[in-house]
């Protein structure tokens, strides 16, 4: 998916490009459950885990079929959760651990049903 900057380069209005394009961001992970994790607000978050097993969570109004590309840049692993009460890889409220220098792609393929693909 193109970034908002790419779309503006093709002449799209900045407001529309911000809605349609991906923007990277840094998410400082917090909490150790999906009830206390930091909210992910963009589709390309760089996860920064302050301490072991702190996490980030997707918004409950996330779009179906729109992928999220996450990357953990810290020496401690980050955990990514679906919204409270939703499923990840077939288990309700399951968090996926993303280790240092690993990328994970997440997609909500039906309302409240998420799947992940972690790099080797």
Short description:
By secondary structure, the protein is mostly beta strands.
Question: How does this structure look, described?
Answer:
The chain has a 7-stranded mixed beta sheet with strand order 1-3-5-10-11-7-8, with no helix packed on it. Strands 2-4-6-9 form a 4-stranded mixed beta sheet, with no helix packed on it. It has one domain: Sandwich (Jelly Rolls), CATH 2.60.120. Helix content is 11%, strand content 40%. A hairpin with a 2-residue loop joins strand 7 and strand 8. It is mainly beta.
Extract low-pLDDT stretches: none
Could you tell me the CATH topology label: Jelly Rolls
How many β-strands, per DSSP? Answer: 11
What gyration radius follows from the Cα positions, in whole Å? Answer: 14 Å
Largest sheet: 7 strands, mixed
**SSE class:** mainly beta
CATH architecture annotation: Sandwich
Whole-number mean pLDDT: 88
SS strand fraction? 35-45%
**How many domains, in number, for the residues?**
1
Number of helices: 2
The backbone outline, from C-alpha atoms, is globular
The termini sit apart by 22 Å
In helices, the fraction of residues equals 10-25%
Task: Please state how the strands of the largest beta sheet are arranged side by side.
Answer: 1-3-5-10-11-7-8
The CATH class, by name, is Mainly Beta
Order of helices and strands: HHEEEEEEEEEEE
């Amino acid at each position: 998916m193109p970034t908002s900057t790419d779309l503006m380069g093709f002449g799209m209005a900045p407001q529309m490009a911000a809605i349609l394009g991906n923007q990277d961001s840094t998410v400082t992970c917090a909490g150790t459950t999906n009830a206390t994790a930091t909210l992910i607000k963009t589709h390309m978050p760089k996860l920064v885990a302050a301490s072991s097993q702190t996490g980030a969570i997707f918004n409950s109004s996330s779009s179906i079929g729109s992928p999220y590309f996450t990357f953990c840049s810290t020496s401690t692993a980050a955990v990514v959760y679906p919204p409270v009460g939703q499923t990840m890889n077939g288990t309700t409220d399951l968090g996926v651990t993303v280790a240092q220098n690993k990328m994970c792609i997440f997609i909500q393929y039906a309302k409240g049903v998420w799947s992940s693909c972690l790099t080797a």
